[in-house]
Write a structure and sequence with these properties.
Shape: rod-shaped
Number of strands: 12
Strand order of the largest sheet: 1-2-3-4-5-6-7-8
Strand content: 25-35%
Length: 421
């Protein structure tokens, strides 16, 4: 029977969600905002090696540490984008070779393919990524020897960039890039004229750097998987439904539909999970009936009031709060209502309103948060007609009585409780 009820509830919830989505779609067009950031800045430095267009007898070091690169990248979606970058390389002689010094600068517009998303890296890692990039640009070569002025040329560029995600804002990168110059009129050393045809200079760069992601979303397109996000949302919805079908107070009404999730155990409730209280005296009718039968009619009102006071002071009447919030949850406002009704029926009574917080965060901040929670409940009670002089706020700070690693336990202690005097 329980399995059937769960299945029926899931079908009803799915139908309601679909109906709401259809209504929203038909009445108001939606403009989807990207769930990921698109812009990034790339900064790296490393080694260079000119592979050809070097004058015989001249040579650079095998690995020359005179390369730097700065780029700005924009991703159209998690798989494709483009970037504009600027490169700087310096070349000079190696030991025991004729001395020279020349400088090569370039700017390139490149397309970018996120191979990590294209090849579904997310199925096995959320830490490593791989980008392919390639395009065209213009370059300039200058030299302190060999020729005067500047040598301007066009170039093609292609490369691979490995990524290691350090956080949602920064990634460590390693890049290997090849550049081919067209119509290069001077060798990289500045001393000779290339004799290799129209595609003359060939340069390799190897670098390490950082990528800084820009934007307000949690993830950048480099690390955003639409399939994973879709599955995560589906899992969250299923978890929410499963959690909502739990009946915390065991009154026969699932929490999803229960407007009073902390009903006193054993009392009758309506279809919304609220205690039945036809005379609106703050005491459930079933509990009041039990008290009337247990005690003689004479003095039963006193006995009822004493029992209600015991319930309040025993911690059975509480108001709960979400994490880092001083606004009572709607479902727990019945706790304030319970206190208000009791105080109205007993005008000679007053109450301490005692706030608590969980142990997450700074202790002094949590003490202040517990005070704000108690003040918020006091305001609800005064708005309901209770004189503020009858309500005393106490900030008890952190409640250390539960395992702070448990999400469910922390929810229990984020509360306001009462002491009637």
């Amino acid at each position: 029977m329980k399995k059937k009820l769960v299945s029926v509830s899931l079908l009803i919830l799915s139908f309601a969600a679909n109906a709401q989505n259809m209504a929203t779609t038909s009445t108001k067009p939606q403009i989807d905002k990207p769930a990921y950031d698109r812009w990034s800045i790339e900064l790296n430095g490393g080694l260079n090696k000119p592979m050809r267009a070097i004058t015989p007898g001249y040579s650079t070091a095998t690995l020359s540490p005179f390369h730097a690169d700065l780029g700005v990248r924009y991703m159209f979606n998690p798989k494709f984008g483009f970037k504009l970058d600027f490169g700087y390389d310096q070349f000079q002689e190696r030991n025991d070779t004729p001395d020279f010094k020349s400088t090569y600068i370039r700017t390139s517009l490149q397309g970018v393919i996120n191979l990590g998303r294209t090849l579904n890296f997310e199925t096995w890692t959320n830490t490593f990524g791989l980008l392919a990039h390639g395009g065209f640009g213009v370059s300039q070569l200058t030299s302190d020897k060999g020729f005067d002025g500047e040598d301007y040329m066009a170039h093609g560029i292609i490369g691979l960039t490995g990524q290691v995600r350090l956080s949602n804002s920064i990634a460590l990168t390693g890049d290997l890039t090849g550049i081919v110059n067209g119509r290069q009129n001077h060798n990289f050393d500045g001393m000779g004229v290339p004799a290799t045809g129209s595609l003359d200079g060939v340069l390799l760069n190897a670098s390490v750097g950082l990528t800084f992601y820009l934007g307000k979303n949690e993830k950048h397109a480099d690390w955003y998987s639409e399939d994973n996000e879709r599955l995560n949302k589906l899992e969250d919805r299923v978890t929410s439904i499963e959690t909502g079908l739990i009946d915390t107070d065991k009154d026969g009404v699932a929490d999803l539909y229960d407007l009073e999730p902390n009903t006193i155990s054993g009392v009758a409730v309506n279809t919304k999970g609220q205690s039945i209280d036809n005379n609106q005296n703050g005491v459930p009718d079933e509990l009041e009936s039990y008290l009337d039968k247990t005690y003689s009619k004479k003095g039963s009102e006193t006995a009822t009031n004493n029992t209600v006071e015991e319930l309040i002071n025993g911690g059975y009447v509480n108001v709960y709060f979400d994490f880092n919030s001083s606004k009572p949850t709607n479902a727990s406002l019945s706790g304030v209502d319970f206190l208000v009704k009791y105080l109205k029926n007993n005008p000679n009574k007053s109450a301490d309103i005692i706030g608590y917080a969980d142990e997450i965060g700074n202790s002094s901040y949590n003490t202040e948060l517990s005070r704000k929670r108690a003040e918020a409940v006091k305001k609800v009670a005064t708005n309901a007609g209770i004189d503020a002089s009858r309500l005393n706020v106490i900030a008890n700070g952190e409640d250390t009585s539960v395992n702070k690693k448990s999400k469910e336990a922390r929810q229990i202690v984020r509360r306001v409780t009462f002491q009637v005097k």
